[in-house]
Amino acid sequence: MSNKPLNPKGTRDFNPITLQRRRYIIDVISSTFKSFGYNEIETPSIERRLTLYHKYGNEGDNFIFNILNSGEKIKKANLKAFNDKNYNDFISSISEKGLRFDLTVPLARYVSQHQNEISFPFKRFQIQNVWRADRPQKGRYQEFTQCDADVIGSDSLLLEFEMIQLYSSVFKKLELKDVVIKINHRQVLNAIAKKIGVKDNFNEFFTSLDKIDKVGSEKTMDELKSKFNNADEIDKLFDIINKNPNHEEYLKFIKNYLSDYDSKLLDELETFINMIDKNKKLINIDFDLSLARGLEYYTGMIYEVSLKSDLNIGSLGGGGRYEYLTESFNLKNNSGIGISFGLDRIFHVINDKELFPKNISLNNEILVINFGKEYIYKILDLLDEIRGLGKKVFIYPDNIKLSKQFSFANNNNFKEVLIFGESENQENFIKIRNMESGDEENFNLKDFTKKYH
Fold it and tell me: Quick one: which of 82, 101, 98 has its CA closest to 90?
C-alpha cells in the first residue's frame, strides 16, 4: 500500500490564488443577497440522521454521508438487519448523525427549532460546504460549497420572481452571458403525470424525466413508455419538449393539454410570465417541461441554471418552492422558496473562459529584505505603522543571499521590495524598489511612512 499523501476522493485542496478567485465569486453572490434584504446564518456540518433522511427521495438518501457511532455504541449494530439486506435499519443502528446533504433541510430544521425567535417572512442566505457520496467528475465533488438564499413564511408570487432577479444580477456581475434559467412547475408535472397514467410512483416519473439532459430525449421517451404504457400522451408531451417552446407556447400547451386543471395555477403562471416578459434586466429564461428537479420536497415553481454553450458542466444552480418541508419538524403552514448557486461549477466556467478580473492576485505587496536581525529590529515600529495603514508587509525570515530573496519576491509577485541594510542604516534612509519597473527610491526614516498615507 502506497504511503503517498492523498486527499480523499471527491475533495480538493485550494492554493492561494484559487481561494482568492473563489472568494471573489462568493463576494459577488453574498453582496447580491444582502442587497435584496437577506441576512446570513450558519448551521452545523453535522445533522442528526433523523433530520436528513426521507427528505430527498430514495436516490438522495443513498448519497448521504453517515457518521459511524463511536465507542460502545457500535456494539448496538443490528446484524440481523444487515443479513436480511435491510440496510437502512442497519445503518440506523450504527449511525446517529450524518454530514449535511444540502442547506435547505438544515434551514427547515433551524426555522422550526428557532421559530419563536424569528420574524416571518424570514429571508436568510447561507454559504457553506455540503457533502454527497456521489461519483466525482468535473464540476461534481463529494465536498462542495453551496450558496443559498431562501424565504420562509410567504407564498407570494413576488418571491418566485425575486429568485430570477437574484440569478440575473449575480450572473451579469460575473459576466457570464450564455447562462439560461430553466423554469417549470411541479404541479404542472403532477398533472401531466396523472394524464399519462402515473398513479403512485410520481418520483419514478420525475426521475426518468430528469435524465433527458444526460441520455437524450429519445431514450427518455422510450423509458417512460416502457414504464407507463401510454404512448399517445407521452408523444404529445415530447412534441412540445422537443420544440423548446417560448413563454407563450409553454403557457398555451398547459392551457390546452391541462384544460381541466386548476385555474388558479394557470392564472399565476400567466402573471409570472408577464412579469418576466416586461422586465428587460433579466438573463435568458426558458420554460422547460422536462425540468423535474428530483428532490422530493419541491411542490411549486422550480428553477435550474445551466450554460447554453456547455451542457456537460451540469447545473450552475437550482431551487424552487416547497410547501411542507418544515412540517416534518412540527412547523405547519410555512411555505418556503429558495435557490442555490453551485460555487464550484461557476468557478470552473469563469476559469475556463478566463473571466476572472486581472487584479485578483496573491495580496503580496511589500517584501522586506533580511540583512540581519539588527536591521530588522530597527525598523519594526515603522513596519507596524504601515501595516496599520492597510499595507501587507512580509519580512523574509532568514538572512540568506540577496539573489534568493529577490527571486522569492519575483516568484510571488511582490509589488515592492524594502531594502534596509548596513549602508542604508548609516545614511538613515530606506530604499524601495518597484519590482515591475525596477526603479528605486530612497526615503528618510522619519518621512518613510508618509509614502503610504
Answer: 82
Q: How confident is the model at residue 2 (pLDDT cuts 50, 70, 90)?
A: low
Q: What percent of the chain has pLDDT over 90?
A: 57
Quote the CA–CA distance of 250 and 287 in Å, as a whole number: 6
Contact 208, 227 (CB under 8 A): yes
Query: Using CA atoms, how far apart are residues 189 and 7, in angstroms rounded to an integer?
Result: 42
Of the candidates 94, 99, 113, the residue with the CA atom closest to the CA atom of residue 52? 99
Contact (CB, 8 A) for 132 and 63: yes
Cis before residue 8, ω within 30 degrees of 0? no
H or E segment to which residue 302 belongs: strand 301-307
Show the cell assigned to 378.
530597527
- SS3 of 27-61: HHHHHHHHHCCCEECCCCCEEEHHHHCCCCHHHHH
Instruction: Give the residue carrying C-alpha cell 538572512.
Output: 399
Segments in 147-185 forming alpha helices (H): 157-173
Give the mean pLDDT of 122-144: 89
Cα separation of 24 and 130, whole Å?
A: 20
Contact call for residues 310 and 337 (beta carbons, < 8 A):
no
Domains of the chain and any CATH numbers: 16-47+104-352 (3.30.930.10), 366-452 (3.40.50.800)
- The CA radius of gyration of the chain, in Å to the nearest whole number, is 28
